[in-house]
Amino acid sequence: MAFKIYTKTGDQGETGLFGGKRLPKSHLRIESYGTVDELNSWIGLIRDLTEYPKTEGVLEHVQNRLFTVGSNLASDPSKKMNVPEIKLSDIQLLEKEIDRMESELPPLKAFILPGGHPTVSNIHIARCVCRRAERMVVGLGLIDEVPDIILQYLNRLSDFLFVLARWVGMRLDAKEIKWVAPVEK
After folding, report:
1. Which of 55, 84, 26 is nearest to 166 (CA)?
2. What's the pLDDT tens digit per position in 106-116?
3. CATH of the domain spanning 114-174, picked from 1.20.1200.10, 1.25.40.10, 1.10.760.10, 3.10.350.10
4. What's this model's pTM, rounded to 2 decimal places?
């Protein structure tokens, strides 16, 4: 039996967590997992734009883990819920991919401007959304329980996305433009 997409239970500006607790849709917990969902959509776009099978596989893995992050954030922390968890191996996969891509890249000696190719720009947007999700989850952790490994994962994912933008840019022969600080006169 299929479920209906609309329930009408959120029509008054509240939504339910796994476990039954209801919160206003503006609550930081809802904003946090909503931003993770937004990030997941950006990762989907990047996966669609890349033409590197290994990278597409890693990005699909990331999308699955972002659903894991979202399910944790959407669960009532006061109740023991049976939801999947981020594992250290998920972070290690990102680190392995960062190291692999960096081994092919020239050393970074200056800040670079996001851009150079539409795919690269979209990866940088995803990186910024990831950083926003991380900031929101940090804020949520100040008022409610959040597993530390979720913060670690989001932090490492933003690093991965930065390196991915550079690596894809190199493969697309996109020029990296260095940030030029204004000179005081």
Report:
1. 55
2. 999 899 999 99
3. 1.20.1200.10
4. 0.90
